[in-house]
Structures are given as C-alpha cells and as structure tokens.
Write a structure and sequence with these properties.
Shape: globular
Number of domains: 1
Strand content: 35-45%
Largest sheet: 5 strands, antiparallel
Strand order of the largest sheet: 14-15-16-17-33
C-alpha cells in the first residue's frame, strides 16, 4: 500500500487509554470482551476492578498473593485465585458471591464466556470445576501441580497442563478425554474457542499442538532455545504464537513450520494473538509491550516502566491490557485509522464506526494471514516444511487438510484508504503524529534457573485407563 505523504513509521497503532495505579507488582490481568472492564491481581493480595477510563470501581483483599484472574465476556463475573489456596468469585459490583478452598496455591483460573462456569488449577494437583453458585461439579486429580487451565467458550471443555508432564483435555463431567505425556512440565496451554485445537509449551523448549480427539498434530522439536512461557492460538487454530525465556516471539502454522521469530531484549512472559488475527501482542521483561503483525513486523511498542508479567486482548481485538511490575495496569485502544493505513485494510474503519457492545466470538471476522518472508527488527527464520518431531513421532506431522482446518474467509482486495483521505492525508498525518500515544509469575523467574532432569521420551500415546486422574 502506498503511504503517500503519510509517514507510516510515525503512526501509533495503539493509543494509551489510561494507567491504572495499583501501587504494587501486577501479576495478572483480564479484559471483558469489548474492553469496558478490567480486573487485575498482584502482590498486594488484592483483586482490583477498573473501567476503561481507569477508574477503580472496587478492590478486594485476599489473604495472600493473587496470581490469576479471569472475567466473563460482559464483565458481570470475576474469578481470582490466590496463594491463600482459595478461589474467589465476584459480581461486577465487587460483591463476593462465594469462595472455595483448595488444597494448594491457586495457579490458574478460567471463567466461561457467559460466566456460568469456572475452572481452577491448584498446586495440590487438582483441577476444580464449579458453577456460578459455587457448587463443585467435579475435580480432576492429575497427581502433580496444575500450572495452567483454559476453557472453551461455553465451558464444556477444559484443557490443563501439569508438573507431571501431561497435557489433558477434560469434558464437562470432568472425564479426561485424553492425556498426553511430554518430556517436561507444562507451563502454558491455549485452546480454540470450540476446543478444536489445544496448544501447550513447557520446560523442554518444545511447543505442542493436539486436536480435540487427542491426535498428536505436531511437536516442534526444540525450535525454542529456552522455556516456553506462553502460547496462543488463532481463533480457528491456523497459527500458534509462543513466547520464550530466550527473548523471542515465535509464530508457527498448523503443520508446525516455524514462520518467523522476533527477538526482544529480555524474557517474553506473555503472548496473545488478537481474536481477529490482526496482530500479536507480547509482553517482555525488557519492560516493553510489542505489537507485531502476523508477518512478524513490529507495528508499535510501548515502555510500561517495569517488567511485564501479563497481557490480555479483548475479544473484539480493540483493547490490550498490560500488567506491569511498575505497580500499574496499562490499557491501550487500537487506533483504527492507523491500523487501516499500516495494514492497508479499510475494514478497521468500519469496525470503529459500528463497534458492537456485545461481541459474539463466532461472528468475528478473521483476517487472512499471508505466510511470506519478512524483514523485521528482530531475527526471522522461515522454514519451508514442518520438521519431523523425533524418531518417536515420525509420521505424525500432518497437513492442514488432514487436520480439518476451519476454512478462513477468502481474501478480498481492500480499498485504497489513501483515496478516501486524499484531500486530508497531510493534516491526518500531523494529527496522528501528535496523538499521545512479578513473575510470569515471579516464582517462574526462579524456575527459569532450575536444572531439570528431562526424560528421554518426548511424546507417548496413553490408553484412557493409564491417564492419571481417571479411575
């Protein structure tokens, strides 16, 4: 796209909406679907709730550090997990609806989109599944600390990763549909909204992708040079982003081919692909939030004054929340005009005009992703074919056709945005140019330096009767 008189390098892809002061290290953040509400948890033992203007509507003090929070799509329900071994559930007004005691520190919580169900993972090795009234519907015992949980949009599936080296997919009744053993403890899991694909990353530098049936899609054999701290899938599962302690952001396609990597200045603790696939957001311990396009080019970055432990992207892809060790949460809003110019796609202008307040994920348009070689400020490494994972998994690398990839919308020619703004592009450029524009959790900083003894097997299929937790 011809930038004309507009200097694209001066465009701000996101504008700072507010800086929400907490006064203490922020470990975790979560946004409602349209970015109107934000919840955060930190070392001050508090759960803090803000609106998009940065006004703190309420806070609640637990008995220990809060490492995990999650909010329903409309912001009406909030869940939090604390090192006091409790799961907390609030309404939008800050009323504590109930709390549930577990047998260990709560590492991860995930609320279904409608707020009717909640999954929690604890150091006691269990996944707890509760309804909106606090009734325990079931628990699943993995046998070792549960590091991470993710739910499908309706709460009918729960993916989890454990320190016992397993990735599990559980159904709505708590039965393990499958459990897959990897060569390392699992730090992070991600799941598509309909649970069609599950991704995981761990301490043995590998990234894993499974389908809903538990069939092993691929394992990228040590493309990452350190622990995988965070993974994120596109809404249809076509691409997977990963962040690592090797200071890099990675993007893989469905076959396991590494499309590119991008180097920052310190550990990458959090990555998230926007639901509409228009960008990838990443937070690093170099204090910066990075926004890249799907080709690996940096669109924008912002210094948040302290190590970034957590980020979240709203379901409508309009807003990014960042939790910083500077004792604040930063809230950014996508600049639709800048995005239209940067990506050459006028649809962002339509999104700004007709932004819906109640976002339905299934109706989100996913932008086409071009897999072409790019030159960025980081380090790129395009791979033509998916590598064979290991001798144990030879033949398991599959193509998109075999995996039943959901079809992406056909690529359409975008209108020339500069034609629309031809008469005002210079004033527009001046206007835009003038706009103001711990620990993944801290305990994982210690884990980073821990020497792990890895088992030689990278992957093994297990019979259902062999899965820990299924009796």
């Amino acid at each position: 796209m011809d930038g004309g008189d507009v200097n694209l390098s001066e465009l701000r892809a996101f504008d700072l909406l507010c800086r929400c002061e907490t006064g203490c290290i922020v470990n975790t953040v979560s946004l409602s679907s349209n970015g109107d509400y934000l919840v955060a948890g930190g070392f001050d033992n508090k759960v803090s709730f803000f609106d998009s203007r940065g006004t703190q509507l309420w806070n609640y003090t637990t008995e220990d550090i809060v490492y995990t929070v999650s909010i329903s799509s409309d912001g009406s329900r909030v869940a939090a997990g604390s090192n006091d071994k409790k799961v907390y559930f609030f309404n939008r007004e800050g009323e504590l609806l109930w709390s549930h005691k577990t047998g260990g520190n709560v590492n991860s919580v995930a609320v279904s989109s409608d707020g009717l169900y909640l999954a929690a993972g604890s150091e006691d090795g269990k996944v707890y599944f509760l309804d909106k009234d606090g009734k325990l519907l079931w628990s699943f015992d993995s046998g070792d600390a549960v590091r991470c949980v993710a739910t499908s949009i309706d709460g009918s599936y729960v993916a989890t990763g454990s320190a016992n080296n397993y990735v599990y997919l559980l159904d709505s009744e708590g039965k393990a549909l499958w459990g897959k053993k990897t060569g390392s403890l699992i730090n992070t899991v991600s799941m598509t909204p309909n649970a069609r694909y599950v991704a995981a990353g761990g301490s043995n530098h590998n990234v894993y992708l499974f389908d809903r049936k538990g069939e092993f899609s691929w394992m990228n054999n040590r493309p990452v040079n350190n622990w995988v701290s965070s993974v994120s899938l596109t809404s249809n599962g076509s691409h997977l982003a990963a962040g690592s302690f090797d200071d890099k952001i990675y993007l893989f396609n469905l076959t396991g081919a590494k499309l590119w990597d991008y180097t920052v200045k310190d550990d990458v603790y959090a990555v998230e692909i926007a639901p509409d696939s228009s960008f990838i957001a990443a937070g690093s311990w170099d204090d910066n939030l990075y926004v890249l396009n799907m080709s690996g080019k940096e669109l924008w970055s912002y210094s948040c004054g302290g190590n970034i432990n957590s980020i979240d992207v709203s379901r409508d892809s309009s807003t990014i929340a960042v939790g910083s060790e500077a004792g604040a949460v930063y809230l950014f809003e996508r600049n639709a005009t800048a995005f239209a110019l940067l990506l050459g796609d006028e649809s962002f202008l339509q999104k700004e005009i007709s932004k819906e307040k109640d976002v339905v994920l299934e109706e989100i348009t996913i932008l086409p992703i071009k897999e072409d070689t790019v030159i960025t400020g980081g380090v790129e490494n395009r791979v033509g074919d998916a590598p064979v994972s290991s001798s144990n998994t030879e033949g398991n690398t599959k193509t998109g056709d075999n995996l039943g990839l959901e079809e992406l919308p056909p690529e359409e020619s975008s209108l020339n945005v500069l034609e629309i703004f031809d008469s005002i592009k210079l004033p527009l450029a001046l206007l835009i140019g003038s706009l103001a524009g711990t620990v993944f959790f801290l305990k994982r900083r210690l884990i980073k330096n821990q020497k792990m003894s890895e088992k030689p097997e990278d992957f093994e299929n297990l019979e259902e009767s062999d899965i820990p937790g299924n009796n």
